[in-house]
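Quick start: read one record
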Amino acid sequence: MNPTFRAGFGVHRLQPPLGAPMSGYAARMGGAVGVHDQLGAHAMILRWKTSSVAVISLDLEEVPDELVAMIREDIHAQIGVPLEAIVVAATHTHSGPLVARRLGEDEDPAVVQDVRQAVLAAAALAETNTKEGVFRVGSVSVPQVAKDRRTLEPSPDSQANFLGFYVQNDMVGCVVNFPLHATVLGAENRLYSADFPGYLRRALQRKHPQCCTLFLNGAAGDINIGYSADASALGERFDFRTFEKASEVGEALAQAVDVGLKRAPKLSEPILRFGRHAVALPLKNLVSLDELDREISHHRQREQELTAIYLECLKDSMLRRGLCEGQSEVIMPLQAIRIGSAVLLAVPGEPFVQLGLAIRESCRDRQVFVVGYANGAWGYIPSRSAFDQGGYEVETSIFAEGVGEALVRGAEMLIRSL
């Protein structure tokens, strides 16, 4: 008989100070004033034969490249998991602390250090908790939760993927993957909160008291609960963006996943593999930073605030990635972990929902978890059709038309290699 999986799960709280800058909304004024619900670092350590991987889920809006590199080094040094086998993902909550310079605002170094320490504590606990067990894997439809925020029509992808890890009859760990911006709460909220993923985790733990749940967001670049990204960028308030709504979304996901787990099959292939692939992605025609500054000033003088915001976000992305005028492409690292018939594909950006669907369709013999916001923060990755329509995501993206096809091809190659 083949050796079984050994897996362990752990969580440790994040403790950003009050007053620290929050991340995710240019329209938000002021730092955090309180804590609504606990932010956390969630870890899964998985071993099979001589292979080991680590998956980290953080209640943050993003995990920038530099922080990913530090976390990987920390986990490798303490637990011995290979650097290339460590995924570090953000849930994309916009109610967490800033962890990297954004739009001229600097992060608090103490917050970054707290994140590193919390991840190490969660990973160490997961390593301590490692036991033999079996995975159940499957998916379930969760309709009427997510919407295309550019059309306000229902999201074309209502599929929640899940992996439940069972020791004897108890589920001790769970991975849930669903494409939806963790932005139920708006820019007016200044309380730290995990948004709907926190409610999802707590609802599953009520049903499975020993369970630690990692939420991995999906291809959610154009998906939220149904409001305009442009209006949100300008600071418009919507009366349905409440903690009650976040609870409703999280509870709906938890209920659907719990039902799905009861009928999901056990993984028949105890296989653990991981790999990486570098894919070349086309950039839009980038102008100099000085020219962008002139354009921003021009639009501000004419009270064209939304266009100015677009250009400020584009400039910010160029600075963060070190891009320069005339550069035509950039190399993006993709990472994948195969767990039996399931594959976690980590994408360091915000791919549009149609790209997630295309990746899954290209590898229908595997259950692909498209994990956005993982291993870096590269911004929006729009689908081809979006470029004709323009709008917030397209205008602020560094990428050019054709980026989606290049991403899908690279993802398929990586998944097939496992």
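The chain has a mean pLDDT of 96.
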